[in-house]
């Protein structure tokens, strides 16, 4: 059969990994695809010493690849928003299929890209955009196709998990571990995307669209990073039987969909609590299958290349199929059209449990007042720990609450922080049991 001709745009960490995996495993891949997948052209800004480009046509202009009539599939690995968007839309306009690992591109411009691709009858595949080498997009889109998805919760930023893991196990400083993650090629070009939760929100946005059949709505995701998590909170959580993980969570509720990324206390015995280093894991609850878990390397050259090359295999198998019989981009027919029945809920309307840490003056009645404020908001306390005074006359108080609406918790925290006997802001970390009943 005719080979599938690929143009790779970008030869950085993932581009280099893709080039090498595709070259090294060419025979195995051809046996699976039923035809060879050949690299026709590579566009790169600078050379990657890991890649031997001997005999490969190269260019420094990515748009040359998008217009090259000898190319069937453009692999977009340049990253970022604008250049990638223009490149992908140009490739689509030229009738090319597209494979990308760019979560920012799909989360922010995916609706536009899928509409353009649908009009042209071409494939846009993006397995590498979520959780690196973990085939969660395909599992959710195809493997769980029988289910009504109830919730998705995952560790979907390898850098953040790497930092939390090493801070906890080695007591190392945040910046020190971040520098290591950057050297290993895990971190985004702008590392605030990792530590402030933006990268995880991109990925969660994509997962939620595939899970529930709604348009991509990155702008409505609540995003909170790990930069304010302290070692103190990690220790307190541990004493209470919890681990702090940075999670992306999306739940279906009667009122709409929750879409939120934030540090989260989860019971130590959950599998997600035991996912360490750069590994990612996503738990998905389907009404028929129950809870399922997808685990593996969430970043890095060859793990992400594994996902990109798997997408190329899918393209090779589907290239001759009538577009209307292909698997829809976001799992549902209608390219994520919005009928308004599942709005993304504002953060004030989400319901969860909370961990609170406050510093109080050691005086009679302070704890009683805090408990009263919580009760006034209908918030029930599940556990309370008052430590001995360690900072002058201030005592740390740790509280775990039952599930409540975020709006009520905001109000309670506002009142607690206004108390004369409470010092500084109240630390609030959300708590999820991630059990099968929720
Ligand atoms: N910076 C990302 C991460 C890379 O750390 O997970 C993979 O998307």
Automatic annotation (TrEMBL):
The gene is hom. This is Homoserine dehydrogenase. NADPH binds at residue 103. GO terms for molecular function: homoserine dehydrogenase activity; NADP binding. Signal peptide: none annotated. It comes from Halomonas chromatireducens. NADP(+) binds at residues 9-16. Pathway: Amino-acid biosynthesis; L-methionine biosynthesis via de novo pathway; L-homoserine from L-aspartate: step 3/3; Amino-acid biosynthesis; L-threonine biosynthesis; L-threonine from L-aspartate: step 3/5. The active site is at 203 (proton donor). Keywords: Amino-acid biosynthesis, Methionine biosynthesis, NADP, Oxidoreductase, Threonine biosynthesis. Pfam families: ACT (PF01842), Homoserine_dh (PF00742), NAD_binding_3 (PF03447). Belongs to the homoserine dehydrogenase family. It comes from the Bacteria. Residues 355-431 form the ACT domain. It catalyses: L-homoserine + NAD(+) = L-aspartate 4-semialdehyde + NADH + H(+). Gene3D superfamilies: 3.30.70.260, Dihydrodipicolinate Reductase, domain 2, NAD(P)-binding Rossmann-like Domain. The keyword Zinc-finger does not apply. The keyword NADP applies. InterPro entries: ACT-like_dom_sf, ACT_dom, Asp/hSer_DH_NAD-bd, HDH, HDH_cat, HDH_CS, NAD(P)-bd_dom_sf. Its EC number is 1.1.1.3. L-homoserine binds at residue 188.
């Amino acid at each position: 059969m005719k080979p599938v001709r690929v143009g790779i745009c970008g030869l950085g960490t993932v581009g280099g990994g893709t080039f090498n995996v595709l070259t090294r495993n060419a025979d195995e891949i051809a046996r699976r695809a039923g035809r060879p997948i050949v690299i026709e052209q590579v566009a790169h800004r600078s050379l990657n010493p890991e890649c031997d480009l001997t005999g490969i046509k190269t260019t420094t202009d990515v748009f040359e690849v998008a217009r090259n009539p000898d190319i069937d599939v453009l692999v977009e690995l340049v990253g970022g928003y604008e250049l990638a968007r223009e490149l992908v839309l140009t490739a689509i306009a030229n009738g090319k299929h597209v494979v990308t690992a760019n979560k920012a591109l799909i989360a922010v411009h995916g609706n536009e890209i899928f509409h353009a691709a649908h009009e042209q009858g071409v494939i846009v595949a993006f397995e590498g955009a979520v959780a690196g080498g973990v085939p969660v997009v395909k599992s959710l889109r195809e493997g769980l196709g029988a289910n009504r998805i109830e919730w998705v919760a995952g560790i979907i930023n390898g850098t953040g998990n790497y930092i939390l893991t090493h801070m906890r196990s080695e007591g190392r400083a945040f910046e020190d571990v971040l520098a290591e993650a950057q050297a290993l090629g895990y971190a985004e070009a702008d590392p605030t995307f990792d530590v402030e939760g933006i990268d995880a929100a991109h990925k969660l946005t994509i997962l939620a669209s595939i899970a529930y059949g709604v348009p991509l709505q990155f702008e409505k995701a609540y995003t909170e990073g790990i930069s304010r998590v302290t070692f103190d909170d990690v220790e307190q959580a541990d004493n209470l039987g919890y681990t702090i993980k940075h999670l992306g969570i999306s739940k279906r509720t009667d009122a709409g969909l929750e879409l939120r990324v934030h540090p989260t206390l989860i019971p130590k015995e959950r599998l997600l609590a035991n996912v360490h280093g750069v590994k990612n894991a996503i738990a998905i609850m389907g009404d028929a299958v129950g809870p399922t878990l997808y685990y593996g390397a969430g970043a890095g050259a060859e793990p992400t290349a594994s996902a990109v090359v798997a997408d190329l295999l899918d393209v090779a198998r589907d290239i001759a199929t009538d577009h209307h019989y292909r698997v829809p981009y976001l799992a549902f027919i209608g390219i994520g059209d919005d009928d308004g029945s599942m709005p993304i809920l504002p953060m004030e309307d989400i319901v969860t449990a909370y961990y609170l840490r406050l510093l109080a003056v050691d005086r009679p009645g302070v704890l009683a007042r805090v408990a009263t404020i919580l009760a006034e908001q209908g918030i029930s306390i599940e556990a309370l720990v008052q430590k001995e005074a360690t900072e002058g006359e201030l005592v740390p108080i740790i509280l775990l609450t039952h599930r409540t609406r975020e709006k009520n918790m905001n109000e309670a925290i506002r009142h607690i922080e206004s108390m004369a006997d409470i010092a500084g802001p109240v630390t609030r970390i959300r708590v999820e049991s991630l059990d099968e009943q929720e």
